[in-house]
Amino acid sequence: MRLTFLGAAGTVTGSKFLVEEDGYRVLIDCGLFQGPKAVRRLNWERFPLDPAEIDAVVLTHAHIDHTGYLPRLVQLGFDGDVLGTPPTCDLAEILIEDSAEIQEEDARYHNARGTSRHRPAEPLYTVRDAKRAQRMLRARDVAEPFDVGPFRARYTPAGHILGACSVRLEAGGRSIQFSGDVGRPTAPLMAEPEPCGDADWIVMESTYGDRLHPDHDPVEVLTDVVRRTVERDGVLLIPAFAVGRSQAFVYYLDKIFDREPSLRVPVYVDSPMATDVTKLYLRYPSYHRLSQAECADVCRSATFIRRADESKELNRKRGPFVVISSSGMLTGGRILHHLRVHGGDERNTILMGGYQAPGTRGRALLDGAERVKIHGKERTIRAEIAQVSGLSAHGDQEHLLEWLGGTERAPEHVFLVHGEPDAANVLAHEIRDAFDYRVRVPRRLDSVSLD
User: Fold this and answer.
1) Which domains does the chain have, with CATH numbers?
2) Please, where are the H alpha helices in 42-153?
3) What is the rounded (10 degree) CA torsion for 124, 164, 402, 415?
4) Cα 229 from Cα 330, distance rounded (Å)
5) Torsion over CA of 292, 297, 298 and 303, rounded to 10 degrees?
6) pLDDT of 185-224, one tens digit each?
7) Strands 235-239 and 349-352, how do they pair?
8) Peptide bond into 442 cis (omega under 30)
């Protein structure tokens, strides 16, 4: 058995791990590199092997840094099955098509403005490529072993997002476990991740390997923000990612309104993708903590908006009300229209509910910027800028150690991936100290024989 780290080694994104056995090649995850330009350029590099020689892809979950390279792989010649849990397959179908639309829109933008060094600028892949990849998705249930060539595979729940799992491969009496992204045991929507279990080799994420989540209740912070905004008859704008974060905000707001009915105001989820994703929570109640009745009740607490004319109508309404809309870092999407209209009014609030990368509007506002460019024009922002932390779907260092502690025997090696170098190296030290396991932080394109 051979393992090669094609992505998410030395960086958080681009998860791709190639496992080979008896000439059969399976790729665990197939994600886009995201973040700084130097990292994104890796998506355009020559793929390290002929994609036509890959027999299958097994997905841990649907986030775009784990699935977003699938259309490119198909474009380059891959023609095998793509396996995932039922929610993962449904989510991936939504996300990779949206990613393809963004790729095409970016190319059109650069061609119209002549801002690319390529003439013409081409998308990394197209909607047609995404639709071909969608047809390759094959659902496999949690805890029911399935065959992938010579491998016997099994999923175990990892928390994180809907359908997310760790995956174990076994062949020739040897086994390797891929953590995927490990969720938080106390997450309000996702079930607690199952412990690692025994395996000869473990490939483990390390995103939050060097830190602990804040020891405070995000609902209390959110309640204070809602109260201040409602008392000003203002509009609360919440930029939020469509998968996981938008649904969490709807859940939190519903609980706040139940506890303090005087604060109840209309909540609008202005995102076609978030609307589609939320429906999957109703379809797959066994993959999250809420009962079908609870899930339906939470969903009824918000108005989900798909059409552009309905979105525009929100900008003619008077507060107080809440708008949850993509994107989570104010880099694009409908939230920018709401920011343009409501950002200049000091009665309103813009609430950041997640990490804001350098260079994004969200980061600029958190850093105190009073003017940001929206749709080509500088806009003055007078709204209150607030932040609530502790909403990450990733487990922190303590949770990762707890997950790994589910093993009853020492693995031959633990490989730490999907983290920045500092986070991975700190977690490696903690694992050696806690368990005395052999730990390695691989680099991209490292390849090891698992014999």
Assistant:
1) 2-211+393-449 (3.60.15.10), 218-387 (3.40.50.10890)
2) 64-67, 70-75, 86-113, 127-134
3) -40
4) 20
5) 120
6) 988 899 899 999 999 999 999 999 999 998 888 889 999 9
7) parallel
8) no
